[in-house]
Amino acid sequence: MRPISTISEDDYSYFDPRVCVIGLGHTGLVHALAFSESYRTIGYDSDQTRVEELRRGHDSLSRVSGELVQQALRKGFTCTSDLEDIRKCNFFVITLPPEAILSDDPDRHPLRSACEVVGRVISGGDIVVFDSCGCPSMSEKECIPMVEKLSGFICNCDFFAGYSPGPLQFPQKGFTFWNDGKITSGSTPEIAKIVDEVYINAFGADSLVTPLRETILGRVI
Length: 221
Fold this sequence. Notes:
Layout: E1 4-7, E2 12-15, E3 18-22, H1 26-36, E4 40-44, H2 48-55, H3 66-74, E5 78-80, E6 91-95, H4 98-102, H5 109-121, E7 127-131, H6 136-151, E8 160-164, E9 172-173, E10 177-178, E11 185-186, H7 189-203, E12 215-216, E13 219-220
Parallel strand pairs: 3-4, 3-6, 4-5, 6-7, 7-8
Antiparallel strand pairs: 1-2, 8-11, 9-10, 12-13
């Protein structure tokens, strides 16, 4: 496991990522497998049938090999449909399948459902990353307010947010990471650094292809 440490001139903060990827469709599963290579990772999906097949090391979507799923399970990756199992996570990653974003009339239901899940289990100090969830304004105007409403917490006071628009391209190496990089940002400069480092550890040293450390969910500070 790789704890993340950030040091500033004023203080020292320590963050030990316990990752939860919400939604185990193809996009979510690929992310979960990548994170599980470096961190304690739980994949959450409300579909119990989907969870059970992944627990058996099989992906009925036929896009990720059973060998890779089984390898991740042996290393400690777990799947669940029980909210109680993810309450102790502190780094939540919400993903959407490409078709939900690229559609002319995108279906917001999966995104709303994922935000509801996080809103019910999030604790103070946790980080929620909106990965492959469309433009930053959607995260700001729809996602974060929903998490705030359900949790009773306030972003940047009680919890924090991160953002990644997804891979620049989708060529994959072994379905475990994208070798073309990932772009990240955060709701404060400190959180941006933590999100950057977590993603670098999970997706490779070249994951931050465009530094956005001073960009807060699309707003330059």
